[in-house]
Amino acid sequence: MRVLHVTDAYLPRLGGIEMHVHDLARAQAAAGDEADIITMTRGRGALDAPGSAMVIRPRDGAGTTAKARFLFSNRKYGVDRGYDVVHAHA
Length: 90
Known about the structure:
single chain; alpha/beta; about 90 residues; 3 helices
């Protein structure tokens, strides 16, 4: 199964939702699912996703305009790439 997690906050920010999404994606990957994450949180050198998951995020130096472009260009990411399930965490 292909799962996409859509979350406003993810690692390297550290809190409840960030760890929840990370742990959930890790558990899904361990069960044999493909679990990817799309977030507005910039990477700043963070370890990305658990296992083979992919994290889609704005570039590290992205400002307001670049983030708006990121949102606009990825608004149909899950549909366009054929995910079976989209989990929204906001």
